[in-house]
Specification:
single chain, mainly alpha, about 100 residues, about 0% strand
């Protein structure tokens, strides 16, 4: 009986990685690379922040792993956005 209870507690652990969390990190890194190589990448940073919000709610609802991916993706996306504003000087530079 006690072994059965241990199996039940192990099933409540987090299952797998959230795809959106990994995608958030990829978008953030590509945003930084876009700023460094081409001078544009702010829209990717904004998209990364949107996916970070989606990933966070998905991880809470389905108890998935990937919180560190989301944190790193948000940091990279913010760096990409701030760099874009610094280089181009305005909000409309996201659209170009």
């Amino acid at each position: 009986m006690q072994a059965h209870k241990q199996n039940d507690t192990k099933q409540t652990e987090k299952q797998g990685y959230c795809f959106e969390a990994v995608f958030t990190l990829i978008l953030g890194l590509v945003s930084i690379l876009g700023i460094v190589l081409v001078g544009k990448g702010g829209m990717l940073g904004l998209t990364g922040l949107i996916f970070a919000f989606i990933a966070h709610t998905e991880m809470k609802n389905r108890s998935l792993k990937g919180r560190n991916f989301v944190i790193a993706g948000v940091i990279c996306s913010v760096i990409g956005l701030v760099s874009n504003f610094y280089l181009n000087g305005n909000f409309l530079s996201l659209l170009n």
